Structure formats: C-alpha cells, structure tokens
Amino acid sequence: MKELCLRALDVARGKGAAYADARIIRTRRQEIATEDQRVSSVSDGESAGMGVRVIAEGAWGFAAAPRLDNESVENAAVEAIAIARAAALAKAPEGIRWAREEPRTGCFRTPVRIDPFTVPLEEKIALLLAINAEVLKVKGVRKCHSHMQFKREWRLLANSDGSLIESETCTSGANYQATAVDESTAKRRNFSAYARNIGYEHIRETPLLAEATRVGEEAVAQLKGKPCPVGRKDLVLHPSHLCLTMHESIGHATELDRVLGMEESLAGSSFATVDQLDSLRYGSPLMNVICDNTMPHGLASRGWDDDGVEAQRWPVIRDGILVDYQTSREVCHAIGATRSHGSCRADSWASIPIIRQSNLGLAPGTERLSLEELIGDTKDGIYIEGTGSFSIDQRRHNFQFGGDCFWEIKNGRKGAILKDVTYQAITTEFWGSLDAVCDERFWTPYGVTNCGKGDPQQIAQMTHGSAPARFRQISVGGAR
Ligand SMILES: [Zn+2]
C-alpha cells in the first residue's frame, strides 16, 4: 500500500506537481435497523481506493483511483495534474499559499476493547428487538424504531513533504425512537448511545434497554404536554441539546473557508468575519469554546488531518471573544497564521479534503454547579434535552431550534412536560445571555455523524461536548 502511494507521488512530481498527496482509505460500514418486532434493514459493506491531490501551476487538481493497482493510481496522478493545469487557466492571480509543515510519520489507532465487527449480528439484532419490545409495552406507544451503526476506517497518507501517516478509527453508536399517538397527533422521544470512536463496549455500557420504559413514557407524556408558552424564558439546556446549537451557530460559523467565502453551499457563509478576529463579542465572558482533535473517543480524533497536520487543541472563543478559526494549510495565512490547526478532512477516498469541524465544545464552568442546582436557581424557565428541528440563516446569525423533550421550570423545580417548544435568537445575543455553566462533572460529549458540507456534498463526523448551561430571557414559542 505504501508503495502505491509513493508511486502516485512520483508520477505527480514527475509531471510538475509543486505539492502532492496520495491517500488510501478502506472503510467498512455496518448498519442495522429495526421497526417494532422486525428487522427493516441490514447493510455491511466495504469500500477502498486512493485519492490523489496535487498543486500544479498554482491550482488544485484531484482525481481518485477506484482500484488499488499501479496502473490505476498512476492514471489518477496524471488526471489530477491535467485537472490542475486546466484549473490554472482560471486561478486567482495570487495562486495557492500552502502553509509549510514538517514531515510527519506515525500511526494512530482508536482504542477499542471489543471490535464491533466481531460481535455477531444476531446479538445486535436481539438487543434492538428487545429494546423495541420494551418500548412497545408502554401504553400509548404505537411504534419503535431502533438502529446501530459501526464504521472502521483505515487511512494511509503520503505526501510530498515526506509525511507517511497511518490511522485506524472505529466508530460505534446506537439509537432508538419511541412514537406515541393519540386521536390528533404523534409525539416522539429518542435515546442514544451517541456515536463515539470506540468499540462495541460503548453499546454494552450504555443503558439502552434499561431506559426503554422511561423513553416510551416520555413520548406518551408529550401527547398531553402543555403547549409551549410564547414570550421570553430562561432556558436550561442539556448537553444532548446544546451539541446541535453549538454545531450550527459556532462550529460552522468558524470554518475559515466559509468565513472567507470560498465555500458557501448549505447555509454556508458566516457573520464571524476575519476583520472581527480578537474583537467580536460572540457571547458572555463565561463562553469558552475549545476545538480538540486530541480528545479521546472524539469522532474527529484520528492523529492527523488530510493535510498531514498533527491533531491539536485550541480555543476559538475565549471569555466570549472570537480568537481563532478552524483552518487548513490553504487558508490559515488569511488570519496571519503560519500553521494550520489541522481541520481538513475528506469523507472518502473519492473526495477532496475540505475544512470540517473539529471536536468542538463549550468548556465547563469553573465554579461547582450541578444540573439540579442550576434548575433550583431558575424561577421561570424551560429545560430542554435532545435535538429536534432547526433552521439557521445563510450567515449563521439568526436561528430557531426545537428539541426532543421539554419541561417547565417553576420556582426552581422541574415540572410538567411541554410540547412543541422552539426558541429563536441571534447567535451573539443567545451566547451573550449565557449566565451559568455546570462544572466538569457534568460535561458530556455528543457525537454528530451526519454533518453535510460541500458540493458535491461530503458527510463528516465530529463530537460536541458541554455541561448543562443556562441562557437568560430567550424568545420561545410562536413557531408553527
Ligand atoms: Zn454540519
């Protein structure tokens, strides 16, 4: 495999590449889905190939080889050069400024105790069907869907800096959804072993079956839930909910390619422009947002990115001020940086690497504070768990979020279940209203496995963690 990568690099350099990388990826995915007491789908497939990326005549070229033999990878290298030469006809006058990087060698492996691909399909299906049976026992629940997903990805990257990097990651996750129905409506409640880079032990150690009755009951309770009030409320947001709010309002907004207008599909630009670096007040002084691709079990943790840059941990928002971005070797110079933070990843051997969100999270509060104490300190609010619908504008500034389950908070007590809660805010006003974050005992990571970006679209995964946090006087209700 190493020889094939080096062969592709030789051909690319021989044809005039100023920079080249060759990346072999072999991915195995297994997905199992059940509906009530039947298996609705099982898939288990493997894909392997090589992507060759070059800079020639100041422009990018990329081509992929679907077969791992000499002829295919040589052809891919020749085609990548031809594409770069064609692209050079329309390149920006300044060309590509490619940040220097020392050559790296090494091997990264996700720590795995139980390889999920060695666990028999029968065992996985039996667990999912047992969950469904338990959920369906709850009076008022009409349906239960459950799902498991596993991915193993082996990568070998060689580039013309002299780097040779190997990584093998393993991702495991499971989730289920109870649906309760009455005469007029349907309500859903979800539970997950949120995807992590870990083995099957994650599935065994998450109380999937033990929580089934509660999950079913909470779906039913939402049918009789009180309607969402309309007005301003204090929101206490659980990390299982905040993960999506952070992803959409901070994560995507701090991808430097989008900030620079180089990539704008899928609500793709950003209000957090480069001229505001070190001055934009993104949120309250309690807001500290850290990117961390060294995080154990993080979905974006794999040692190096596809630019060959070592995984790093860095703040993007410090004490509420925007201080950095998620960068690649191509764009980091736009903020005066000489090195990339290593956020450039491709979703397969057939895709060109683009800036993807790192593992990004809200740092826990420094004062001792539990979720119970936070709710106890809230007079008139709403507590939200899990993710639901959302929408956000083109510049990631104006948004609306739903959730999975909602409770009224009255005089420091978690009370009745509410239904159909939505909240609306401007990103900086929302984060500006952050006035309490629970401490590190309550900090929990949640995985996102379906982040879409790019054109053609690529699907990436990353982890967003936080502790429960409170946001004062946010506009709720009113959405239809
Ligand atoms: Zn996304």
Write the layout of secondary structure elements.
Layout: H1 2-14, E1 19-35, E2 38-56, E3 59-65, H2 70-88, E4 105-109, H3 121-136, E5 141-159, E6 164-181, E7 186-197, H4 201-205, H5 212-223, E8 226-227, E9 231-237, H6 239-251, H7 256-259, E10 289-292, E11 313-318, E12 321-322, E13 344-345, E14 354-355, E15 360-362, H8 371-376, E16 380-385, E17 390-392, E18 398-401, E19 405-410, E20 413-419, E21 423-426, H9 427-432, E22 434-437, E23 444-453, E24 458-466, E25 469-476
Parallel strand pairs: 4-6, 8-20, 9-16
Antiparallel strand pairs: 1-2, 1-5, 2-3, 5-6, 6-7, 9-25, 10-11, 10-15, 11-12, 13-14, 16-19, 17-18, 18-21, 19-20, 21-25, 22-25, 23-24
Helix pairs in contact: 1-2, 3-5
The chain binds zinc ion (ZN).
Structure overview:
This protein is α+β, with helices and mostly antiparallel strands and 480 residues long. The chain folds into two domains: 2-224, PmbA/TldD superfamily (PmbA/TldD fold); 227-476, no CATH class. It is 20% helix and 39% strand. The chain is built from nine helices and 25 strands. The strands form five sheets. Strands 8, 9, 16, 17, 18, 19, 20, 21, 22 and 25 form a ten-stranded mixed sheet that branches. Strands 1, 2, 3, 4, 5, 6 and 7 form a seven-stranded mixed sheet that branches. Zinc ion (ZN) binds at residues 247, 252, 451.
